[in-house]
Design a protein that fits this description.
Rossmann fold, ABC transporter ATP-binding protein, 21% strand, transport, ATP binding, 2 domains, binds adenosine-5'-triphosphate, six-stranded mixed β-sheet, P-loop_NTPase, 9 strands, ATP hydrolysis activity
Length: 233
């Protein structure tokens, strides 16, 4: 993305953001209201970019998206849901079954495959939402807060699924949880008040942690993040 600015009324939610994202798993962090969802909505086409531009390396790239609160049809069974989502993304009906079986296996969803979505726990539902978003084999996957509100065991299960996404060239993960970034991402962008204040590898971000107090109040990642967002050093 290049020089992307988005305003709601006159207030800038994204302010001249330029970022070359991926390949690999890339994190997007920032405080509440920093503009993370706005940036994601621009990438997936839910918001029209009127100032600046967004381009994918492969111009016909298919993009999968799991929003902050994925809405899945509760009355459908897990396998049907995944097939239905693949079909919605243009997969021919006769090919959806095999693709659903593939993701059900790689996400270890076999035991829920015939359960109705409304009977699933939050973590199970999130895994199904990710499986449904990748069944059509997109090159890019965008996840908005994929582990929010989950208990530690469910969080681990969701992270395991994200790590299984070998076929996806680039996964962008917006999250409040620094552990998600530490465990999943090689690169990270820090958004603050609409401005991209840091982009680089997780190691480069860690190098921003102030030496004093290291590890006393939080992890090195949290200290580095705080130094960037609040100028604390
Ligand atoms: N539809 C809208 N109309 C007006 N202002 C909006 C709208 N959507 C977002 N905003 C404002 O734009 C700014 C960025 O919001 P955004 O939701 O992108 O941030 P965020 O980083 O995703 O926040 P959070 O972490 O709380 O989800 C905020 O100040 C928000 O109040």
């Amino acid at each position: 993305m290049e020089n992307v600015t988005v305003s709601y009324r006159r207030r800038k939610a994204l302010d001249d953001v330029s970022w070359s994202i991926g390949p690999g798993r890339v994190g997007l962090v920032g405080p509440n209201g920093a503009g993370k969802s706005t940036l994601i909505h621009c990438l997936v086409g839910l918001l029209r970019v009127r100032s600046g531009r967004i381009e994918f390396a492969n111009s016909g790239a298919s993009v999968g998206f799991v929003p902050q609160k994925p809405e899945l049809p509760g009355q459908l069974r897990v396998r049907e849901t995944i097939e239905y989502c693949a079909w919605l993304r243009g997969v021919p009906r006769k090919a959806t079954g095999a693709l659903a079986d593939d993701v059900i296996e790689s996400f270890a969803l076999e035991e829920f495959a015939t359960s109705k979505v409304r009977a699933l726990s939050g973590g199970q539902r999130q895994r199904v939402a990710i499986a449904a978003a990748v069944a059509h084999r997109p090159e890019v996957l965008i996840l908005d807060e994929p582990t929010a509100g989950l208990d530690p065991t469910q969080r681990l299960a969701v992270r395991r699924c994200i790590k299984e996404l070998d076929s996806v060239d680039c996964v962008l993960i917006a999250t409040h949880l620094v552990e998600d970034i530490e465990h999943l991402c090689s690169d990270v962008g820090v958004l603050n008040r609409g401005r991209l204040e840091f982009t680089g590898s997780v190691d480069e971000l860690l190098a921003r942690a102030p030496a004093a107090d290291a590890g006393v109040h939080g992890s090195a990642f949290e200290e580095a993040y705080d130094a960037i967002v609040n100028g604390n050093s």
